[in-house]
Design goal:
Layout (H helix, E strand, L loop, with lengths): L7 H7 L2 E6 L2 H4 L12 H4 L2 H4 L2 H6 L1 H17 L4 H8 L6 E6 L5 H5 L4 E3 L2 E8 L5 E3 L21 E5 L8 H13 L2 E5 L11 H7 L3 E6 L11 E4 L2 H16 L1
Parallel strand pairs: 1-2, 1-7, 2-3, 7-8, 8-9
Antiparallel strand pairs: 4-5, 4-6
Helix pairs in contact: 7-11, 9-10
The structure holds 2'-O-acetyl adenosine-5-diphosphoribose (OAD).
Amino acid sequence: MDFQKQGLKEAIEIAKNLVIFTGSGVSAESGIPTFRGNEGYWAQFSPQQLASEDGYLDHPDIVWKWYLERRQKALETRPNPAHSSFADMQDFFEKVVIATQNIDKLHQRAGSLDVLELHGSLFRSKCRNCENVWDDENTKFTDDFHICPSCSSPRSVRPDVVWFGEPLPYNILQRAIKEAEDADIFIVAGTSAVVYPAAQLPYIAKQHMAFLIEINTEPTPITSIADLTLRGKAGEILPKLVDVIRNIRR
Ligand code: OAD
């Protein structure tokens, strides 16, 4: 593993702001499938059917069952060493921000305090009519399931996630962009980095002179601009990176 790579030690020595951009590969070792792998979500299902407004309007029950299964699965899994390592990094830098495309809440459960959920959360619902948003871990699939608890509108409750064709939550994206601009070190982990606008974040960080580290089992479009590529499983590499940081910053 190339922890001797030129520039890494200096970057760790002087960094104040660490920004971490994650995708589903970071949760793979917790047992949650990625999206585009051979056995990923999009190999089994059509994204347009399950993760779009039109799909929801055509088959709300199918869409809800899919999200409730994913919510249940996320509750049954545990953060893995990749998530814990990111939480550990909070001990060494003034500011650590995670911008995640994941909706499984595993970063928060591992102890990361500043998590920007770019694609929403499996654990919130929202009303399409009155736009009320609420924490939702326990909803059961019943006849009155789709009635908004706030405005009582029927067939209006949906998961608070970003679907195909929808914009990202404005304030969260703007803050992620600002944090990417201010990053001294920017880590990209477990994402194919092909879904925009989230995937612009590493480029923004690089343009603003961040030291860019990529952690992935496979090459991605980010590999060619990364200052350091660590090839392998996030849950195996990240604890080693924390050791390197601890040795330099203690
Ligand atoms: P992808 O399935 O596109 O990419 C997962 C990435 O993780 C790939 O580059 C894998 O090589 C890598 N990977 C797999 N296992 C890994 C491991 N153990 N350690 C390190 N890397 C590993 O998933 P995302 O990039 O998260 O959006 O996908 C981005 C967005 O596309 C998702 O948020 C979702 C999807 O459409 C929405 O639903 C809006």
